[in-house]
Amino acid sequence: MRRLMCLLACVAVAAAGCEREARRYTELPAAANRSTAVRLTMLQPGSPQPLSNVQSPYQYNAYGLSEGKRLYAAYNCAGCHGLNGGGAIGPALTDDKWIYGSHADQLFSTISQGRPDGMPSFGGHIPDQQIWQLVAYVQSLAGMVSQDAATSRNDDQAAAKPENRIEDARQIQTGHR
């Protein structure tokens, strides 16, 4: 009897400690997602408000990161940024130099609103959920996400390290915008 109670207690502790990550399968259509939460400039009316540190909801979510990796290929991001984010006609996503910033909200703005001289605007064309998944994957290319959540296999892109093996480098904003 004592052995059975001990076994049940172990199972209860294991079940309580096992937290599944959230997977949101359905979201609103892209046209319904008009985000205004990302601050574009430091200009604001009234007294200065503190900046909030916005993080991607998928930064610690393995499912979201793998979806971001799939979307990176599906939306042909590799055409400009290279297969492994190493850069081509677009800037590299794996180094420590970021023109428009490497924070999640800055990456969200870049993807959703586009940038001059090449980066198209995807806002209103794809749902915010997918933009956040792309943000998380782009951050994983530079080693800015937890190695526990980053995707570990690169079956079709064997030229680079898997995202969970990339070391985090201090990011530097090089652009003036």
Helix and strand layout, with pairings?
Blueprint lengths: L1 H16 L44 H13 L3 H4 L15 E2 L5 H10 L14 H14 L30 E2 L4
Helix pairs in contact: 2-5, 4-5
Structural classification: mainly alpha
Give the mean pLDDT: 77
Q: Quick one: CATH class?
A: Mainly Alpha
- The CATH H-level superfamily is Cytochrome c-like domain
Put simply, the count of helices is: 5
Q: Largest beta sheet, briefly?
A: 2 strands, parallel
Q: What name does CATH use for the topology?
A: Cytochrome Bc1 Complex, Chain D, domain 2
- Report strand %: under 5%
Provide the spatial order of strands within the biggest beta sheet: 1-2
- Termini gap: 69 Å
N to C succession of SSEs: HHHEHHE
Describe this protein's structure:
This protein is globular. The chain has a single domain, classed as Cytochrome c-like domain (Cytochrome Bc1 Complex, Chain D, domain 2, Orthogonal Bundle), CATH 1.10.760.10. It has helices spanning 2-17, 62-74, 78-81, 104-113, 128-141, and strands spanning 97-98, 172-173. It has 177 residues and is mostly helical. The protein contains five helices and two strands, in the order H-H-H-E-H-H-E. The longest helix has 16 residues, at 2-17. A two-stranded parallel ribbon has the order 1-2.
